[in-house]
Design a protein that fits this description.
- This is Fur family transcriptional regulator.
- InterPro entries: FUR, WH-like_DNA-bd_sf, WH_DNA-bd_sf.
- This protein is 33% helix and 24% strand.
- A 3-stranded antiparallel sheet has the order 1-3-2. It has a 3-stranded mixed sheet with strand order 5-4-6, with no helix packed on it.
- The protein starts with a helix and ends in a 6-residue tail after the last strand.
- By secondary structure, it is an alpha+beta fold.
- It binds zinc ion.
Length: 117
């Protein structure tokens, strides 16, 4: 589904910035922090913040807090991650998720990675 259709379905006004933000998230293979997103977009910070608020409220994106930092990813592409408590590395866990829920928003498994052991 196209991003403009997704926004329209949630009755969210389609703007170039909103489409761009969703595109950035869709092109990343890992959740992005707010700072990482800011680096890629030339726009007013308030507009970006507001767009993220709306996306989150409509479950279009998912926010995860790791080491007091917020990370965002598309709700439709949410995966499971292992996060190291020491270096905060995020490693995608590629496993078949249990077939118990209609949809899984996110799963974060915390621990200490091999490098930090
Ligand atoms: Zn580590």
């Amino acid at each position: 589904m196209q991003f403009d259709e997704i926004l329209a379905r949630h009755n969210i006004k389609v703007t170039l910035l909103r489409l761009e933000l969703l595109k950035i998230l869709s092109q990343s293979d890992k959740p992005l922090s707010y700072d990482e997103i800011l680096e890629q977009v030339r726009a007013n910070k308030t507009s970006i913040y507001r767009a993220f608020e709306i996306f989150e409220k409509n479950n279009i994106i998912i926010k995860n807090e790791v080491g007091r930092k917020a990370f965002y990813e598309l709700g439709s592409a949410a995966k499971a991650y292992f996060v190291c408590d020491v270096c905060h590395a995020m490693i995608n866990i590629d496993l078949p998720l249990p077939n118990i829920a209609k949809s899984i928003k996110s799963a974060v498994i915390k621990g200490i990675c091999k490098e930090c052991e």
